[in-house]
Amino acid sequence: MINYKFEIRKIAVLMVLIIPLFAFSSELEYKLEKPQKLFVGTPFKLHINISSAVSDSIFSTQNDTLDIFILKNIESAEEINDEIKTTLIDLTYQPFDTGEFTFPELEFAVRTADSLQILKTKEFILNIESVITDSTESIKDIAAPLTVNLKFLDYFIPLLIIILIIFAIKYLIKLLKKTKKDFSEPEIIDDRPAYIIALELLNKLKKEDLLIKGDFLNFYFRISLILRLFIELHYKINSVEMTTSEIRANLILDDHSEKSEILKFLGQADMIKFAKVIPKNSDSELALTWLENYFKSFEKFTTNLSSLKLRQGRQSEQKQTKKEF
After folding, report:
1. Which residue has the higher pLDDT, 321 or 99?
2. Longest dimension (CA), the chain
């Protein structure tokens, strides 16, 4: 005979064991809170409600999954009612791009004593606009435009003022240029003989000891430049800016041997400057000695020329005295 009381007790025990399994099954609900139109920088919220057992632990995975939606704030709270724990999570996002974007699903892990359950939200589309427009604001005319009737003087007087201003500006510019010219420093002219200037530059070059340092390129560049400067000052041709070939064509001397020596010296310097030929120290010293002696030779010429001019002056004075008597 079946013991009905015993069977009823078994069923009751099974129900007691099964019901908690259904009662503590975790659930997730979410709600989007945003304005009717969403703009760049305008925050919106996502409210997450997770129901679970009191002993369960809830973890959220990485929420900031898109660069366009920046997670700005997280607020969370818990409520326990009838052995059911409700976890309230408020996520605040801000969009930083315009267009239509899909907000990704968010994952939350619910860990029990012996299992792990993953709860997810669903993806949804958000349309982000760039500028907040207010359709209630519109530009309206305060009053109708006024008609202005201009007369001759209304045109003539402004035009006359503009002309006077232009003339005043021109006068001031001219006055400033003249003042600057009047107060400019006088040009300093070196009236010494050319050979003295050349010898002074040559002595400065010798003190730099370029041959001892092995700087042949700079040495020959400098001595050729000093010779060109001397020719320009003494013979009045623009030899500093001329090539050796141009000096050959433009330098006219009565003494052909002097011209030949000058061109030979400049040609040797050109070979070292442009062809990168490395000379001997003895050849470089001979070139320096020749150049120094060449400049010094003009000292006798200048002295003789000054003596000749002095004698001619005295003779003219004597002639003038005889005429007076």
Report:
1. 99
2. 189
Q: Tell me how many domains the chain contains.
A: 2
Domain housing 257? 194-302
Cα(222)–Cα(287) distance, integer angstroms: 12
pLDDT value, residue 157: 87
**C-alpha closest to that of 295 among 258, 241, 254:** 258
Q: 17 in a domain, yes or no?
A: no
Amino acid 202: pLDDT:
92
How does pLDDT run across 118-167, given as a tens digit for each residue?
888 888 888 888 765 555 555 555 666 777 777 777 778 888 899 999 99
Please say which residue of 90, 105, 129 terminates a domain.
129
